[in-house]
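haha ok so turns out i had the wrong file open the whole time. this is the CORRECT one, sorry everyone. sequence first:
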Amino acid sequence: MSKILVTGGAGFIGSHTVVELYQSGYEPIIVDNFSNSERSVLKGIETIIGKAPKIYAIDCNDKLEMEEIFQQEKSIQGIIHFAAYKAVGESVEKPLEYFHNNLGSMQVLLELMLQYNTSQLVFSSSCTVYGQPEKLPVTEQTPFLPAQSPYGATKQMCEEILRQTVAIGHKPLKAISLRYFNPVGAHPSAQIGELPRGVPGNLVPFITQSAAGLRPPITVFGNDYNTSDGTCVRDFIHVVDLAKAHVKALQLLEKETSDSYYEVFNIGTGKGSTVLEAIHAFEEATGIKLQYKIGPRRPGDIEKIYAEVNKSSEVLNWHTELSLKEAMRDAWNWQQKLQSK
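then structure:
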């Protein structure tokens, strides 16, 4: 089995990707310092795959400790790099922490990859690199606009670091950046899912916690946007579909014959849904009537964004299989599992 280092592998997207890697014949090795994840996730992964995942509880910015992993594991075929600070609002308040953590970990990984001849990297990027695009849907050729936050800036910068490092060409290095849109849902087993700390900043965990009586009625931030019902439009993708895209990216890198290869892919459904449509999808999936109110617009929110996914379909041979309604069903089952513990 090919060893794949998964940084941030105990996180929301990372944990689902660890499962998909294992089920596709890889040996995932988690690196996570649990600064934004919980150790209980490891038990959920174990329940799904039937064995305890291998884990190194260290910080990806610590080059000495990261180097010990490369030395101990000896032959790491590839890396999927999730580990990063990811809260847009927090990044505005703590820009230096975000630049240090998100850019520093990328630099450490690339230096060690070149040193130990690990040639394949899949990077967890984001549709935030596009800002508020002038034309929709966004394609991979859509130009970057100035980042709306330090978080978005780190994703833009990491992509540029990757592109320029690959371009040097003095050692084999192949990389793919996956630009995620809005991951939602949970594993159908309800063993792993999203674990936000404090008040959720994302819509779906706030919906599930509100439905469970843990949060007040949902506030919809603005209903006067230029959209079908006045609320913001997002491209919601089931986290299991997203996890599978990482396996496809690794398989593409394995087949790529060039020693210097860099490519980017949008990972979304290709369809936008409004906030109200997401709320109604939850109601249809669960039979639960949600309480919500309309509030003022939230600073920094993009009006609408959704992906053009032809490239990921044709080149990655990947497409989504699960609907928003199924994502809401799985998110609710996960919420109920959390409350039963």
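The mean pLDDT is 95.
again sry for the mixup
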